[in-house]
Every structure is written in C-alpha cells, then in structure tokens.
Amino acid sequence: MRIEAAGNGERKVWLTDSEIEDLRRSARGQRDDLLIQLGAYVGLRAFEIPQVRPVDVKQTEKGGYRFHIQEGKDTTGNGGKPRDAYLLADVERDLRQYQRQKNIAPKDPFIELTQSGVRAAIGRIADRTAESTGVDGFEHVSAHDLRRRFAQRLLVDENMNPRVVMAVGGWDSFDAIEPYLNEPTPDVVDDAFREAGI
C-alpha cells in the first residue's frame, strides 16, 4: 500500500489486490463485501453504487455482464452521464445471491444506502481492516481508493486499452486516467525488469 497526501488532510491510498482481499475479509456480511467489490472490481463511485438494480444487469451475447448506470459523473459539466459498466461474473453471481437472500425486487437497488452511507460503510470496513491486520494505512481507505485500484489494475497490471477503461469507468478524458497509468505496482516494475533481462 502506498499513501500520498492529497490536500485538505485527505490521502490517496494505492491498494494492491491482496489488500482488497484484506478489506473483503473484514466485511461484516454480504452487503459490505459487495460494497468493496462494486468499487474495486467494477469501478463504481460512491453515488453510483445505490443505483445498481437487478433489472439493470444484462448478459451480453458473448457471456459477459453489464449494467446500466443512469446518472454517472459527467466531468464536462453537462449533468449526469449514463454508461454501461462491465460486471465480472463473480460479482454478478454475488449480487444475484444477495438479491435472493434479501428478496430484492427487480427495480429496487441492491444496496439501499445513500452516497454518504456508502462512504461511511467503507470507512468502517477500512477501520476494521486496519485493526485486524495491524497495517497502518487501511484506516485512510475511501470509496475512491477502491475505484483507483480498479483503474490501476486494468491500465497497469492488465495493460488494457485506455479507451475501454474510460468507457466502462466513466472517465471523459485521457487526462482523467493519466495518474493511474503513471503508478506501476511493485509487481509490474519487477516484471518489466525481468522481461528486459536486467
């Protein structure tokens, strides 16, 4: 985990996938686990998580899953920008299981929290993770840090086409995703040197 000062006392936390798993282990119940997954594996913002409804999940012709975000963030200032987020099969399965357990109607949200409720729940999970692991830094993890890991995994670890990442993550410009391209994980650095034979 790497932590950077971001101004106003805020911090940017750069997480690894194993640290995401630490957060998931500290989740109390399936809803908390879904909050972590929707941020870290789907790239949703805190205000987008409560928008996800069973009726919006669609299987594609090639077997993948998408769901429609009605009002994503529009960084151009023209109001909410809709997009289709890519939904990993494991996350889709967990959402459907949660829907059955909680008897969630097709047009009701999977997660009945406000944006601030999502942020607070993720903060509580992060605090529990700091306590259970004894690792300093987890207490600073926010919903946006989960989204940051989503972008970095795709752009740096998986070397995915930035335009694809922009489309599924709701970024409007290369400038918006550029910070994630410049922050290779230690594994990516090691692999690059190994491939170069150095």
Structure description:
With 198 residues, the chain is an alpha+beta fold. The chain has 8 helices and 5 strands, in the order E-E-H-H-E-E-E-H-H-H-H-H-H. Strand 4 and strand 5 form a beta hairpin. The longest helix is centred in the middle third of the chain and has 19 residues, at 115-133.
CATH superfamily placement: Intergrase catalytic core
Task: State Rg.
Answer: 17 Å
Provide the CATH topology.
hpI Integrase, Chain A
Structural shape: globular
Strand content: 5-15%
**How many separate structural domains?**
1
Order of helices and strands: EEHHEEEHHHHHH
Terminus-to-terminus distance? 25 Å
Q: How do the strands of the widest beta sheet line up side by side? A: 3-4-5
Keywords:
hpI Integrase, Chain A, three-stranded antiparallel beta sheet, single chain, two-stranded antiparallel ribbon, 198 residues, alpha+beta, globular
How would you sum up this structure in a few lines?
The protein is of the alpha+beta class and 198 residues long.
Write the layout of secondary structure elements.
Blueprint: E1 2-7, E2 10-14, H1 17-25, H2 30-40, E3 57-59, E4 65-72, E5 81-87, H3 89-102, H4 115-133, H5 143-157, H6 162-169, H7 174-181, H8 186-196
Antiparallel strand pairs: 1-2, 3-4, 4-5
Helix pairs in contact: 1-2, 1-4, 2-3, 2-5
